[in-house]
Amino acid sequence: MTRRETITGQQLEDFGTALPGNAADGIRRRPMMSGRLSNDNLQSFLNIHTTDTVSMRDAAVKFPVNPAVTVAIVLRGRVRGAFDNVPFDLDARIQPVGFIWALSQPVMLHRELQKGDDVSKVMISAKYDWVVKRVCNGDSRHAAINDFIHAGISVRQWQPSRRAIALADQLLYPPTDDPLFRDLYAESRGLEILAEALGSLRPDAEFIAEGSAEPDALEHHQKAQEIRDYIKDHILDDLTLSGLSEKLCMSIASLQRIFKNAYGTTVKDFIRESRLIAARDAMEKDGLTIGQAAWMAGYSSPANFATAFKRVFGISPSDARDR
């Protein structure tokens, strides 16, 4: 089985989430979720938050949210809560869905986590003032967008195109080779999703529906997730394209095409990076030696492992082990 990151109550607080006021230290040390959680403030005006987690216990959490225009694509699961006293229900249990909301003033976001909640989502937030400056320019074509972002707390559902769904998938698991290009990679995809969501607010937004997710696109999205999940769950096994093809009942060509279209990387590169991530976690948490971690990641030479490790994470295995 692949190593899934355990997210404690303390780590959620580090992300800005407030646990109940009477939460004891034991609760803060307790695992709350398993999976991956990221929150990146890019050099520009964007914040990109991604979640691919399973809740391990029931919890009520809250955290402050600054004025912003935010786009969310929920790829899997259901997210319920409220902005102050305005409820929202982001339900993607049948198919991926998109939501856009605008907050013109600071609010408190309340979330109810239920044990077993399996959620995969991407959120792109743009600073409120940045959006206002670009929308409030007297252009009548932007009147509907202007009204939406000035309504106080506005929440609306939109149907993302098949390309937007693919971009969201890519943001969940971006390439990790170089921080500079990883940020540019994330920013370019975040901007494109933001533009599509804002465009859906225009009265003449019929063109958005033309690119909306068709059944075959949704099927490919689900197959891509199936491939990714199988790899994650068997990352320490001897994974080959032919073996994956047989297990997942699809041709090697289809397997490679569907995965590359969804995540922007090859199956082999994803396996390689996932093994390096598992090896890094094992060194940091379980104290594996560099030689053991190299073997775990599929490298017979610790030197080759160290080279690949530094190229992906920007630090040496010894530095990672000492953290």
UniProtKB/TrEMBL annotation:
Q: Which domain of life is it from?
A: Bacteria
Q: Which InterPro entries match?
A: Homeodomain-like_sf, HTH_AraC, HTH_AraC-typ_CS, PchR_regulatory_protein, Tscrpt_reg_AraC-type_HTH
MF terms (GO), sorted A to Z: DNA-binding transcription factor activity; sequence-specific DNA binding
**HTH araC/xylS-type domain mapped to chain residues:** 225-323
- Keywords tagged on the record: DNA-binding, Transcription, Transcription regulation
Tell me what this protein is called: AraC family transcriptional regulator
